[in-house]
Structure formats: C-alpha cells, structure tokens
C-alpha cells in the first residue's frame, strides 16, 4: 500500500520531466515562429544599447515579405522603424501597430533561473527579458500579417508596424518625435494599437486611457550651520521639506482611500503620489542649507492640469518660504479613446476577442504607455497584450510567456488586424479624433 501510494506520484513526475519536456522541445524548437521570438529576445536591446542588430533583424524580416523597412532617426542612436503592409485602398486612413524594441535591464545575478537574454524554453514557457514587454507582441503582429498575406487576403487599409527605441525611458527620442514628423503625418493613421499587460485572469484588459505623468523636484533652502547650532525647525532646510512631505502625505492618504474603493480596472479616479528620492546634506556635523524631495505623481484623469497644479503648489509652498519646485515632467492630460460600439475600432478588437472566447475588460491602468502621446496627437489608441492567465512579470525577474499563450496571441491578432484593416470607408470617420473624448470637462 505504502509503495503503491508513493510510486505513481514519483513516476508521474518522472514521466512529466522526460516525456513532456522532450515533447515541448520537439514541438517548440521546430516552430519557426517560436524560434523567431527566441532570436529577438537574444538581441540585448536594453535601452541605450546599440539597436543596430535589432534594426538588421527587422530589416531581414521585412525583406522576407518583400517589404521595405524605413528607418527614421530623430535623435542619434534612437532609430524609429516603420514597415508598411500595403492595403488595397491607400486613400483610407491606416492602422498603426506599435511596439517598442527596447527592454529594461536584466542580469542573471538578479535571480533569473535562466540567462535573461537567452530566450530559453523551460516547462512550456519562453523565458527572457522582453518575453512579455514587448518583443512577443512585435513578433505576433508580424506573424499575423504574414499569415494574412499567405492566405492571399488583401486588407483594405494600409497597416504600419512601428518599432520604437526608447519607450522604457520616456519615449522622448522615439514616439514623441515621430508623432511630430512629416513621416507620421503622411501615414494618415486612423487608429493605433499599443501594448497592455499580462493578467493572471481569463480576461483581456483593453486600455483606452493613460494617466498623465508629473515628476517634480522640491528644493527646500534654509539656515545652514555647524552641526551643533540650534535653529528653529521651520528655518532649516530639513524642517521645511519635512513640512512639504507632511502635506503631501496627507494628500496621498486621501487619494489612497479613493484607490482602495476603486475597481481593479479603474485607476482613473485617484492621483498616485510617491516620494521616491530624498537627498541633501554633506556631512554628519553640518546642518544642510539644501534638501531635495523628488516625487512621481500620476493624475486622476478628470482633473484639469491648471487646477491640479494650483492645488499641488499650494500644498508645497504653504510648507514654508524658500521652497522651489522644478518640473521634470508635466504631461498634459491625454484624452480617452471611446470604448464602446460607437467606435468601430473598439468593435474590431472586441469582436476578435469574442471570436477567441476571451472576455474584454475595459481598463485604465495605473501606469502609462506610448499610447497617451498618440491620443494627444488626435489618434484613437487602445493598448493590449494578449497575455491572459499569465502572471504580470513586466520588468520583473524571470519574465516569461507561455509558448501556447504566445501562439494563441497570433491567432487573436490575425482576427483583430483583419477586422481593423477591413473597416469599410463609410464605417470609420475620416476625422479620427471623433473617437477620442476629453475627460477633464
Ligand atoms: C530542451 O531544450 C533546452 C534548451 O533549448 C535544453 O536546455 C534542455 O535540456 C532540453 N530538454 C530536453 C529534455 O531535451
Ligand atoms: C545587456 O546590455 C546591458 C546594457 O548595455 C549590459 O549591462 C548587460 O551586461 C548586457 N547583458 C548581456 C547578457 O549581454
Ligand atoms: C495564394 O496565391 C498564390 C498565387 O496566386 C497561390 O500560389 C497560392 O496557392 C495561394 N494561396 C492560398 C492559401 O490560397
Ligand atoms: C530665503 O532666501 C533669501 C534669499 O536667498 C534669504 O535672504 C533668506 O534669509 C532666506 N530665508 C530663509 C528663512 O531661509
Ligand atoms: C471596468 O470593468 C467593468 C466591467 O467590464 C466596466 O463596466 C467598467 O466600465 C470598467 N471600468 C473602466 C474604468 O473602464
Ligand atoms: C512650522 O511651519 C508649519 C508649516 O507652515 C506650520 O504648520 C507650523 O505651525 C510651524 N511651526 C512652528 C513652530 O512655527
Ligand atoms: C460611448 O461612449 C461615449 C463616451 O464615453 C458616450 O458618449 C456614448 O454615449 C457611448 N455610446 C454608446 C453606444 O454606448
Ligand atoms: Zn512595454
């Protein structure tokens, strides 16, 4: 009895290891699409690395489909790539499928079970930096378009794959420059599809608005002196910044209550505030004349910038005199893309998900993507990554994507791109901004 109970479990474990990992390797290693993602992950595109190898990778893939890759460089070392898949009616507005080439840093020493730039498959999962964020998505776009082409299906609208160099560090050299360029204007984009994130639930979050990012440095200046001097707290730099922090924490606690009562898919209702850098002081025995606080703030999407700025500056300046604020970023509020059937692009996406049996969850995330700049430029944008039932490991150690999740995602994009690029002329307005709505009114 004892043996009987133990053996099957042990045997099962053994068989799993032997049969299934062999089978996995056999199936997956012989799948050229999986191999392509592995190859892309192997290119170390940590932001600011030479993107030459990634450019070459995409140039080859474009060439294999008889397509030209355009490379635009607005800032040295930061190429923006565009691959055009021509539609049958180039007079219609186009569909832009955006992704970014760069990834956040990763090193084996951080605790990875496999080297982060190896793209190795283990237990049915492709491991590596960028497997979720977002090299998988770039390959999925490409494979979906390739399959549509192989089926001899002509799409009505031009489809552009765009690949950005610096999403992870603020998109200043990539998307933001590109949106102001004549090249972007010439593309006549009617809709942009961008990234979302993995969720460990059987739903597909579709992001239709992003929060504005404000980052500030508060500098408090006060009476300096010998470490033994004794000035009123409120006259010292530290005392003033303490008052700033107290006011800001009070505001933060109020916002945190709103956060607690918000639905999981709605980060639009609260303003997040985080004090991320505290700096100042030069020696143990010197009272500093300058102390700095650096804040990262993500605005609730309903507040007007001018109103919020006034509120923020009141909180800070009321903490004492000789306090200054420097804005590192003060993004304008970005409109929301209409997330219902009155927007044909929304319908195209949700129909594709429905076909796959995946429920769509409209959502406003706590962070933000390139899509907010696209919406600001007057183009409706939605963000998603078809990574359902997948723990969110964006920027994390041991980032992975299930091989089957990756492959199913291609099926999803095949339907989604087909729907988007075949929206008839009469069904989508020639003015894309009608699918955007300002939420601060
Ligand atoms: C599967 O492939 C990986 C590398 O791709 C290798 O490390 C592993 O040993 C292989 N597993 C089996 C059971 O062949
Ligand atoms: C990837 O690039 C980063 C940034 O240049 C570098 O620090 C890191 O060592 C590289 N990793 C590998 C495995 O080459
Ligand atoms: C697509 O068209 C080509 C050329 O006309 C033909 O050889 C091929 O069989 C077609 N493929 C499909 C899937 O219909
Ligand atoms: C504020 O700054 C001014 C000019 O630097 C200085 O004269 C004044 O003493 C400072 N006040 C305090 C309270 O530090
Ligand atoms: C959150 O999801 C629910 C259910 O799908 C939906 O009704 C609601 O509008 C979503 N919230 C946001 C902010 O999109
Ligand atoms: C110090 O300044 C803060 C903020 O202006 C104020 O609330 C507090 O009463 C002051 N403390 C003293 C002792 O003056
Ligand atoms: C769609 O959403 C917009 C903006 O949120 C709203 O004005 C409109 O009434 C909605 N239309 C439908 C059909 O639900
Ligand atoms: Zn990303």
From TrEMBL:
**EC nos:** 3.5.1.14
Q: A Pfam family for this UniProt protein?
A: Peptidase_M20
Tell me the first and last residues of the signal peptide.
Answer: 1-23
- PROSITE patterns this protein is in? ARGE_DAPE_CPG2_1, ARGE_DAPE_CPG2_2
Which coenzymes or cofactors are required? Zn(2+)
Instruction: Look at the named UniProt entry and state the broad enzyme category this protein falls under.
Output: hydrolase
| Entry's localization field | Cytoplasm
- SUPFAM superfamilies in UniProt: Bacterial exopeptidase dimerisation domain (SSF55031), Zn-dependent exopeptidases (SSF53187)
Record keywords, A-Z: Cytoplasm, Hydrolase, Metal-binding, Signal, Zinc
Q: Which domain of life is it from?
A: Eukaryota
Q: Which residues form the Peptidase M20 dimerisation domain?
A: 214-319
PANTHER family referenced in this protein's UniProt entry, alphabetically: AMINOACYLASE-1
What family is reported?
Belongs to the peptidase M20A family.
Q: What is this protein called?
A: N-acyl-aliphatic-L-amino acid amidohydrolase
């Amino acid at each position: 009895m004892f043996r009987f109970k133990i053996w099957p479990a042990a045997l099962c474990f053994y068989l799993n290891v032997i049969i299934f990992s062999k089978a996995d390797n056999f199936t997956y290693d012989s799948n050229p699409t999986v191999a392509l993602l592995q190859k892309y992950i192997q290119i170390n595109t940590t932001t600011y690395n030479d993107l030459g190898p990634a450019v070459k990778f995409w140039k080859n893939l474009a060439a294999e489909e008889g397509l030209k890759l355009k490379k635009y460089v607005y800032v040295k070392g930061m190429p923006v790539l565009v691959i055009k898949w021509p539609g049958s009616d180039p007079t219609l507005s186009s569909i832009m499928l955006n992704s970014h080439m760069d990834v956040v840093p990763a090193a084996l020493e951080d605790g990875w079970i496999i080297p982060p730039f190896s793209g190795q498959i283990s237990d049915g999962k492709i491991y590596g930096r960028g497997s979720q964020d977002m090299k998988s998505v770039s390959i999925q776009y490409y494979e979906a378009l390739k399959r549509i082409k192989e089926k001899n299906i002509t799409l009505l609208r031009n489809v552009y794959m765009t690949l950005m160099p610096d999403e992870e560090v603020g998109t200043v050299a990539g998307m933001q420059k590109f949106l102001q360029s004549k090249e972007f204007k010439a593309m006549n984009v009617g809709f942009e599809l961008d990234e979302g994130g993995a969720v460990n639930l059987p739903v597909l979050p579709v992001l239709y608005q992003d929060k504005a990012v404000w980052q500030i440095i508060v500098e408090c200046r006060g009476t300096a002196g010998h470490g033994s001097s004794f000035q009123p707290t409120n006259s010292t730099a530290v005392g003033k910044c303490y008052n700033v922090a107290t006011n800001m924490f009070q505001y933060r606690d109020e916002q945190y209550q709103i956060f607690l009562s918000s639905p999981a898919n709605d980060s639009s209702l609260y303003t997040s505030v985080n004090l991320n850098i505290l700096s100042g002081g030069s020696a143990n025995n010197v009272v500093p004349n300058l102390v700095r606080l650096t804040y990262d703030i993500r605005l609730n999407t309903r507040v007007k910038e001018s109103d919020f700025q006034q509120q923020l500056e009141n909180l800070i300046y009321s903490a004492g005199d000789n306090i200054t604020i420097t804005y590192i970023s003060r993004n304008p509020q970005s409109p929301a893309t209409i997330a219902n059937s009155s927007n044909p692009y929304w319908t195209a996406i949700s129909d594709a998900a429905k076909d796959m049996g995946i429920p769509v969850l409209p959502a406003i995330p706590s962070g933000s993507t390139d899509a907010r700049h696209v919406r600001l430029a007057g183009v409706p944008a939605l963000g998603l990554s078809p990574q359902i039932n997948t723990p969110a490991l964006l920027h994390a150690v041991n980032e992975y994507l299930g091989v089957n999740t990756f492959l199913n995602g291609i099926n999803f994009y095949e339907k989604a791109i087909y729907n988007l690029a075949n929206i008839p002329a009469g069904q989508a307005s020639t003015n894309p901004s009608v699918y955007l709505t300002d939420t601060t009114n």
